[in-house]
Design brief:
- The protein is α+β, with helices and mostly antiparallel strands.
- It contains nine helices and seven strands; from the N terminus they run βαααβααβααβαβββα.
- It has a single domain, classed as NADH Oxidase.
- The strands form two sheets. Strands 1-2-3-7-4 form a five-stranded antiparallel β-sheet, with helices on both faces. A two-stranded antiparallel sheet has the order 5-6.
- The longest helix is centred in the middle third of the chain and has 32 residues.
- It binds iron/sulfur cluster.
- The site of iron/sulfur cluster has 11 residues, from helix 9.
């Protein structure tokens, strides 16, 4: 069954620290008034222009194996492959901030207003990440309402293009999920349009399935080590 999710303006508002981190400014740092003004402008434009919407649809492990395999370009060993094998429930998801906000970012870059364009780009990316963080508990609520999960079930999202799941995985994901229903399309190079969109798989199960060592072969080349922050935020078991 497919669920469509809409969001309130408050839900779609990005976290201030996340926006500044996107600009290379550490959380809590004191910023100049010019930077503060840029942030306020970006927040207002985002609030006026974003049209956030998301969808998810349950998928069996057998079907997800087909989606995950894609056209065969994944790394041989990846976290998603291992975690999905231990999942209790799976769903594909996609979300977008809509076309208008991407157009506003492009307009400002083309007008040479790079400072505003860059801040707006960071704000939109932070907003999309925030929406992904809302879709995860919505899938859990969905599972709980059908007695397919317990309160200790933990849901995390994983996306093609990260941690060894090749970008070309988008092709099969789009075939199964049909995100065109919420206005997202895929280019030949597997980029989503509108650009400020996220897709992937929601993996539900005990929190421990999401804990893994960053010792996959690709991890030695990873600059962000972003999985560590998510793992630290998992509930104790
Ligand atoms: S270290 Fe990097 S590449 Fe490895 S799992 Fe974590 S985020 Fe992915």
């Amino acid at each position: 069954m497919t669920e469509i999710i809409t969001f309130s303006a408050e839900e779609a508002a990005p976290d201030r620290n996340a926006v500044f981190e996107g600009q290379g400014i550490p959380a809590g740092a004191v910023v100049t008034q010019d930077t503060e003004d840029l942030y306020n402008t970006a927040r207002d434009v985002l609030s006026d222009s974003a049209a956030p919407v998301a969808m998810f649809a349950e998928i069996s492990k057998a079907d997800f194996a087909v989606v995950y395999r894609g056209v065969g370009f994944n790394e041989p060993s990846t976290p998603v492959k291992d975690i999905s094998a231990r999942a209790e429930q799976l769903a594909l998801f996609a979300l977008t901030l809509g076309k208008s906000i991407s157009e506003k970012i492009t307009e400002r870059f083309e007008a040479g207003d790079f400072a505003t364009a860059s801040m707006l780009d960071s704000a939109a990316s932070a907003a999309a990440d925030r929406l992904a963080g809302i879709v995860e508990p919505r899938f859990l609520e969905y599972l709980l309402s059908r007695e397919l999960a317990t309160p200790s079930t933990t849901v995390l999202g994983y996306s093609p293009g990260y941690c060894g799941w090749h970008m070309s995985g988008q092709e099969k994901l789009f075939e199964f999920l049909q995100p065109g229903r919420i206005g997202i399309s895929l280019t030949e190079s597997f980029l989503m349009q509108p650009l400020k969109s996220i897709s992937g798989v929601l993996i539900a199960g005990p929190a421990d399935i999401h804990r893994f060592a960053n010792s996959y072969p690709l991890c030695s080349l990873c600059e962000t080590q972003s999985c560590r922050k998510r793992i630290r935020a998992l509930p104790e078991t």
